[in-house]
Amino acid sequence: MLAYAVRSSRGFRPLFATAALSGTAYAALQLDENLTAKAVHADAPASKGALDPNEFRAFKLKEKKQLTRNTFLYRFELPAGQTSGIYVASCLVTRAMLKAKPEDEKPKAVVRPYTPTSAPDAKGYLDLVVKVYDKGVMSKHIDSLKIGESLEMKGPIKKYPYEANAKKHIGMVAGGTGITPMLQVIDAILDNPDDKTQVSLVYANVTEGDIILKDKVDALAAAHPGRFKVYYVVDKPNWGGIFWRGGVGYVTKDILATQLPKPAKDSLVMVCGPPGMMEAVSGNKAPDYSQGEVKGLLKELGFDSSNVYKF
């Protein structure tokens, strides 16, 4: 069975109900397969695991576990004793021949990125956490897979080049499935006793029931009280918020000022979530998918491109 182990003033409304895509996933909706392939090849290291950055390989679905009303953890089988090849921080792309639009006469290659939540040193399996959308072509395809059926993947794709102790304090702002790259970095930090980096996470969702991997996040916070803290924000708390101890409705400038590190050379804020959230908190990436200018609440707080990273 799938299980989780604990390794060592103005604001915005989280628009997760209609567009809860991470910044990376949203960008990929604009990409065709050739452009995505170029992104993979641009800085692709030699393959060190089951994945390959230069070709798609098929992996069989081994297990499936429901996490929220529309989010699932899919575990794919890797060759015995082999790791995926994923490193911190990186992602992969999936590919399937699908009819992306109702008017399509023939299936075509659909490519979408995902950040694995399994540890880089996990042998024999790779986990993807996927939110299934009504209009999500790839997410619906992954959800339709039966145990034993395969999904094509290519990677890893280099994202943020994390180095232990390079920063004193890392803040994170995540929305919905934007938690997945954050967990990749959090796990790497907390699993390394020599890494003294502090981590502060602000994690926003629509309801309490939509908080992905909350049990794992809470367990990490409890196990590392001096190194990792989390502050949840939900748009619609249960029971009118009577028993809710986190933020309600808006992620505000005050919340970020209180929960995140101050702007400094030894601090960094990572952001990943739906486009509306990205724009309000940090600004979206540039049209060419580079980091672009820092805008929104983080700019008002004094952050700039030297201490903000957009997944």
From TrEMBL:
PROSITE patterns: FAD_FR
Main location: mitochondrion
Swiss-Prot/TrEMBL keywords: FAD, Flavoprotein, Mitochondrion, NAD, Oxidoreductase
E.C. number(s) listed in UniProt: 1.6.2.2
The UniProt record lists the keyword Calcium: no
CDD domains assigned: cyt_b5_reduct_like (cd06183)
Enzyme class: oxidoreductase
Entry superkingdom: Eukaryota
Cofactor: FAD
Localization (cell): Mitochondrion
Domain FAD-binding FR-type: 54-163
Catalytic activity line of the entry: 2 Fe(III)-[cytochrome b5] + NADH = 2 Fe(II)-[cytochrome b5] + NAD(+) + H(+)
Family, per entry: Belongs to the flavoprotein pyridine nucleotide cytochrome reductase family.
Protein name: NADH-cytochrome b5 reductase
